[in-house]
Amino acid sequence: MTTLPPGSTIGILGGGQLGRMLSVAAARLGYRCHIFEPGAAPAADVAAQLTQAPYEDSAALEAFAKSVDVVTFEFENVPAEALDRIEALRPLRPNRRALAVSQDRLTEKEFLSGLGLRTAPYANVESAADLAAAVQSLGCPAILKTRRLGYDGKGQVRLTDPAQVPDAWAAMKDAPAVLEGFVGFSMEISVIAARGLSGEVACYDPGQNVHEAGILRTTTVPAPIPAALRADAVLLAGRILNALDYVGVLGVELFVTQGGLLVNEIAPRVHNSGHWTQNGCTVDQFEQHIRAIAGWPLGDGSRHADVTMENLIGTDMTRVPDLAATPGIALHLYGKADVREGRKMGHVNRITSATA
Amino acid sequence: MTTLPPGSTIGILGGGQLGRMLSVAAARLGYRCHIFEPGAAPAADVAAQLTQAPYEDSAALEAFAKSVDVVTFEFENVPAEALDRIEALRPLRPNRRALAVSQDRLTEKEFLSGLGLRTAPYANVESAADLAAAVQSLGCPAILKTRRLGYDGKGQVRLTDPAQVPDAWAAMKDAPAVLEGFVGFSMEISVIAARGLSGEVACYDPGQNVHEAGILRTTTVPAPIPAALRADAVLLAGRILNALDYVGVLGVELFVTQGGLLVNEIAPRVHNSGHWTQNGCTVDQFEQHIRAIAGWPLGDGSRHADVTMENLIGTDMTRVPDLAATPGIALHLYGKADVREGRKMGHVNRITSATA
């Protein structure tokens, strides 16, 4: 195991708010960051360098890779060809396997099932006929999701009646899809877990997630679950990390059901539901990810406060003056120029109590 | 009072570690930063823009000023002509008066005395004869300091015997100086205080400072002083802020003596002895400064943990791997390329207990 020398440069694929917070964390550990982003890049305001180019621009990608010492990403849907070019030149952390698994909902579910972990019942859907058969076997309600590029509720159709099969399939526009059966759950929680270069694992306390319109609204720690479930969540995350030979931070979304925990999905990166760690832990998820990919010892993940993280979405930005004047609230704005409906503009961490 | 609109740019004179941490705090509130720095600029790694030019380059200074919405500084010895040019174009916060007072030890002591605050006994020294007379009146030991550009123990000579007058004066190289008489004190503390655009004041809990070789080694909060002294320190800082019509964060170094508090010096900027706020408060001194100069409500300054801040100076950097592996320690490295003796390379905040 080698530690990335001080002053080294970390390449980050993606220049959104996750890249922004990763770049700040990297600087705190003495590293510089180079962001690669095809579009607008709020991360560039706090990074040493920005390359703004499409992922198809192989010259730009190669120049980027050569200018850095290790490459990571804030976004899991980077095209495979772009990753090929980068991997030929520099280490990519986490690795391709983690990306391959999480980029494709079917692969992900098969991987999780293969580890003996529970998921929602699912079926592969490549045609209207597949969908009709799947609806018959899994029942309604069910959710049809494209296998790839799902993000914040996009590319999803909810079926409440088998008669909706033709429309639902049409909405997929021939993209391979997965039908997920209905799961009764009492709450969604997530575990933010990390694995270092030398294989050690550290997890943060699970948080309870509340979504609105398919977008994460709040995460609250501690999640109101029994200690046994908390332990299950952490053990399960460790199993996923080890199976993937993972390096970095991984988000695992879980449903709490009467029969125990069920894995909803995994994200091979820092995760919105881990933003509370910025004000609840000595080493937050962003620094933890940088520590992992730079070969440092991981932070232990211990939590010194109870926190509720709330996303500021679209016009929630009008609440900023009030939030700024409220004690015990930490603001984290992303510096995005345009306020748009459904767009994550920032978040707040509300410290609800300090714990020794 | 107007609040700086989201997406505005803040100009920072000076690109060292203080500018670096200010830039990160500004980004967290949705602002961009433009750094002006004649030399090496670790702040540029986390800033949207850098102008690297001498303070005498009036074209560069004017272009810088025009590109930003408000200007602040991390360093109080910016030449007056440079400040003239900037002030002609953009608001400077804190104001010139605060700089004029703190740039000159004599002006500073006269200002503080004028407010009825205690300082060490002092005398103006413009010649060897002045020095001889001052030594006679204040006695030995005493410290001779240049009136301007003092920083981390540079430009200072300690006199233990009147016979040292000729050598001490020669060391000043004809620079106007101040002789400070000896003060018996039990400890040095400092108060980090802030005043907003609308005149409200907020202070952090005083910390105890320990120096080594003229450089701050550690700051510990809470300082082990009675509640009455804590209140005195905070009231006194408020008086200084109001008298200067100050906007931003100010550091006030105080000696604890048998007769009460005595002001050692003031620094019109975020201060090394306030770095503990990064891990002890919801709103740290860097965000507090940005809030003040951007016309936001101030954070209340309340502290949720006991913290000891320790500077990493020169070869202390070899301790980083051990520190990184110790729970409860937050690392803050400055990304400086060269390790030099006496150079501040980073700091750690050791959380010694969480308090509700």
From TrEMBL, chains A, B:
NCBIfam families: PRK06019.1-2, PRK06019.1-5, purK. The gene is purK. Belongs to the PurK/PurT family. Pathway: Purine metabolism; IMP biosynthesis via de novo pathway; 5-amino-1-(5-phospho-D-ribosyl)imidazole-4-carboxylate from 5-amino-1-(5-phospho-D-ribosyl)imidazole (N5-CAIR route): step 1/2. The keyword ATP-binding applies. Residues 109-294 form the ATP-grasp domain. One of its GO terms (cellular component) is cytosol. PANTHER family: PHOSPHORIBOSYLAMINOIMIDAZOLE CARBOXYLASE, PURINE BIOSYNTHESIS PROTEIN 6/7, PUR6/7. The keyword Secreted does not apply. Homodimer. ATP binds at residues 105, 145, 150-156, 180-183, 188, 211, 264-265. Gene3D superfamilies: 3.40.50.20, ATP-grasp fold, A domain, ATP-grasp fold, B domain. GO terms for molecular function: 5-(carboxyamino)imidazole ribonucleotide synthase activity; ATP binding; metal ion binding; phosphoribosylaminoimidazole carboxylase activity. Catalyzes the ATP-dependent conversion of 5-aminoimidazole ribonucleotide (AIR) and HCO(3)(-) to N5-carboxyaminoimidazole ribonucleotide (N5-CAIR). Catalyzes the ATP-dependent conversion of 5-aminoimidazole ribonucleotide (AIR) and HCO(3)- to N5-carboxyaminoimidazole ribonucleotide (N5-CAIR). It catalyses: 5-amino-1-(5-phospho-beta-D-ribosyl)imidazole + hydrogencarbonate + ATP = 5-carboxyamino-1-(5-phospho-D-ribosyl)imidazole + ADP + phosphate + 2 H(+). SUPFAM superfamilies: Glutathione synthetase ATP-binding domain-like, PreATP-grasp domain, Rudiment single hybrid motif. Keywords: ATP-binding, Ligase, Nucleotide-binding, Purine biosynthesis. Its EC number is 6.3.4.18. GO terms for biological process: 'de novo' IMP biosynthetic process. This is N5-carboxyaminoimidazole ribonucleotide synthase. It is an enzyme of class 6 (ligase). Pfam families: ATP-grasp, PurK_C, RS_preATP-grasp-like.
